[in-house]
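Researcher: Quick test of sequence recovery. Tokens follow.
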């Protein structure tokens, strides 16, 4: 029988997803039972105030072990990673953090016989040869970015630990994640977050991909829900483990700008593609997530209209308090 999750460690807890996931886990499992960790950026606000925090470097297994032992950890949510754009600027660092971080987490989970490990993958696992529309669960995985290479290798490594050593590892291929709390750091889908901040701050945005660039995206509440639901799913019902496609919405950069303009009169968006355009062009536009729906009941709740209204409400409130850009790009 699967073990129960009691005491959790989150890596990358100061990052875009980690910062909100940690608070959601603390609500659910008790604040003192969820240990946040990060490499460089200091935590602030609720993340700092509601529970323990440690600096660790996931590439050093010993630094992970100290916290795991101290808090008798039985589940790890491994959110620390170098994303696609930064990864192209420093491929070797991307390999080091993403691959050595992943194998250290897996080894640690095995050594401590943990209940569950969550190690996310990404739409970056796909490449230009992958079918772009309604991308199937089982398909061509030939990414062109180092980030994507580490995600495919990571999926294979995680599944290897499941089959070879019986470690309970689970993962999902996140699309671009949009949120109003912490800015993402160094991804290709970052424009879909920045555009909201700039709309609120200055009523205009210079977008680094073309207006017809369509990518799969998801609002943070759905991302948190997907992550928790997968973590708590019945292991015996899972046929896949580390590579679940999850979809929510897909839109072009132009459609996103037009959607924001409905709420921000006079909002303008200029398009000046840079090196990230090529990365975006190598990724799918929409995702077939029927395996996730069937195996653990995945169902997104947010669409573009609802997300835009909620993002703008939240960011306007933060802007009024002079808070925007405080939580940028964590490491
Ligand atoms: N948001 C990520 C990136 O753009 C994709 O997983 O790199």
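Model:
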């Amino acid at each position: 029988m699967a073990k129960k999750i009691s005491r959790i460690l989150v890596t990358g807890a100061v990052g875009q997803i980690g910062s909100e996931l940690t608070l959601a886990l603390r609500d659910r499992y008790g604040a003192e039972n969820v240990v946040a960790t990060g490499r460089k950026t200091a935590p602030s606000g609720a993340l700092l105030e509601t529970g323990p925090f440690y600096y660790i470097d996931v590439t050093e297994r010993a630094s992970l072990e100290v916290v795991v032992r101290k808090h008798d950890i039985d589940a790890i949510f491994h959110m620390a990673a170098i994303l696609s754009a930064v990864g192209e600027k420093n491929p070797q660092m991307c390999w080091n953090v993403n691959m050595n971080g992943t194998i250290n987490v897996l080894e640690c989970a095995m050594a401590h016989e943990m209940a569950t490990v969550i190690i996310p993958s990404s739409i970056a696992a796909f490449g230009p040869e992958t079918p772009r529309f309604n991308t199937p669960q089982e398909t061509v995985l030939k990414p062109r970015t180092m980030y994507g290479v580490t995600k495919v290798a990571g999926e294979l490594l995680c599944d290897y630990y499941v089959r070879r050593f019986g470690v309970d590892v689970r993962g999902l291929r996140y699309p671009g994640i949009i949120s109003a709390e912490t800015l993402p750091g160094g991804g290709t889908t970052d424009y879909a977050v920045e555009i909201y901040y700039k709309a609120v701050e200055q009523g205009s945005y210079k977008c680094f991909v073309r207006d017809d660039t369509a990518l799969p995206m998801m609002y943070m509440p759905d991302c948190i829900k997907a992550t928790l639901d997968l973590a708590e799913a019945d292991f015996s019902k899972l046929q896949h483990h580390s590579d679940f496609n999850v979809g929510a919405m897909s839109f072009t950069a132009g459609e996103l700008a037009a959607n924001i303009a409905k709420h921000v009169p006079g909002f303008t968006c200029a398009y000046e593609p840079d090196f990230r355009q090529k990365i975006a062009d190598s990724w799918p536009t929409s995702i077939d997530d029927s395996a996730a729906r069937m195996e653990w009941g995945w169902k997104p709740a947010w669409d573009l209209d609802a997300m835009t209204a909620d993002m703008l409400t939240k960011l306007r409130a933060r802007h009024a308090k002079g808070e925007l850009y405080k939580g940028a790009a964590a490491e």
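The pocket of serine is lined by residues 83-84, 122-124, 147, 174, 176, 187-189 (CB under 6 Å).
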